[in-house]
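Researcher: Quick test of sequence recovery. Tokens follow.
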């Protein structure tokens, strides 16, 4: 007799009672994404749905650690899997989401913040920064590739089967169409984090990958299509990804402000936001020199 597969039951969403899902992402969109991604063979299989949750396939794998992302072989597999993920065809329009999502989060953050917090994070100036990035990084770059992006590719959202080395990307709350350079940039930024340390909110940007490591990841990413990438394509994506780190800093900085008001998890969201905004202002003159303040 065949053994019964082990499954995971995802019941009532733990953060919804605190309003996290309503404010930061659309739970219905996340469920729809899960269903489509599952049909494409990514992530756990969807085995069933019920009111308030779903039944997922159990994945015989472990979550990556922060150190795993620096392993050359693991990083290459993550790059190849990300390329596959970006090619998923989600029904509907393919509009880039990141800019309007940040504007929406900015409005929410400003409505929640005390005047002191609003002044500290310069929230009255952030919409101009979003507009600047959208123009410089997106509207002026007509040829950039748009794909279905995960938008939160930190090590905790990647699993590896230690028998087969197969990579699985999980958790699609923030997934949407965006420039693929943004998704890669966000992944690079996440290498500064270790969410399982004694101070999970502290980011160490000395761990941000150097040019050689970033180039290797992008080479592996582009090679996943089956062809050796052109040097000019590697250079272009390398440059685009570096600039899109600015969008990542603002995105998660705003996320941290909102989360600090609505999320009860033991995590210093405010300090996390400070670090992301600080990094934005530090890197902007280097990456957008012609538009620096």
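Model:
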């Amino acid at each position: 007799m065949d053994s019964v597969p082990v499954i995971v039951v995802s019941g009532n969403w733990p953060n919804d009672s605190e309003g996290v899902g309503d404010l930061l992402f659309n739970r219905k969109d996340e469920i729809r994404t899960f269903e489509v991604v599952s049909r494409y063979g990514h992530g756990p299989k969807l085995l069933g749905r019920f009111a308030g949750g779903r039944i997922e396939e159990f994945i015989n794998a472990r979550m990556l650690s922060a150190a795993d992302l620096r392993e050359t072989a693991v990083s290459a597999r993550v790059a190849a899997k990300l390329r596959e993920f970006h090619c998923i065809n989600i029904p509907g329009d393919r509009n880039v989401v990141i800019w309007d999502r940040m504007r929406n989060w900015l409005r929410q953050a400003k409505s929640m913040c005390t005047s002191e917090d609003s002044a500290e994070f310069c929230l009255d100036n952030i919409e101009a920064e979003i507009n600047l990035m959208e123009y410089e990084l997106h509207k002026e770059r007509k040829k950039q590739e748009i794909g279905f992006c995960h938008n939160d590719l930190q090590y905790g959202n990647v699993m590896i089967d230690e028998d087969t080395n197969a990579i699985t990307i999980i958790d699609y709350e923030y997934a949407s169409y965006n420039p693929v350079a943004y998704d890669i940039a966000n992944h690079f930024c996440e290498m500064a984090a270790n969410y399982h340390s004694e101070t999970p909110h502290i980011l160490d940007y000395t761990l941000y990958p150097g040019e050689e490591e970033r180039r290797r990841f992008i080479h592996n990413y582009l090679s996943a299509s089956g062809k050796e990438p052109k040097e000019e394509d590697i250079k272009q994506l390398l440059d685009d990804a570096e600039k899109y780190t600015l969008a990542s800093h603002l995105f998660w900085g705003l996320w941290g402000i909102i989360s600090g008001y609505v999320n009860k998890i033991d995590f210093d969201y405010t300090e996390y936001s400070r670090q992301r905004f600080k990094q934005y202002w530090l890197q902007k003159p280097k990456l957008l020199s012609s538009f620096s303040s």
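The radius of gyration is 19 Å.
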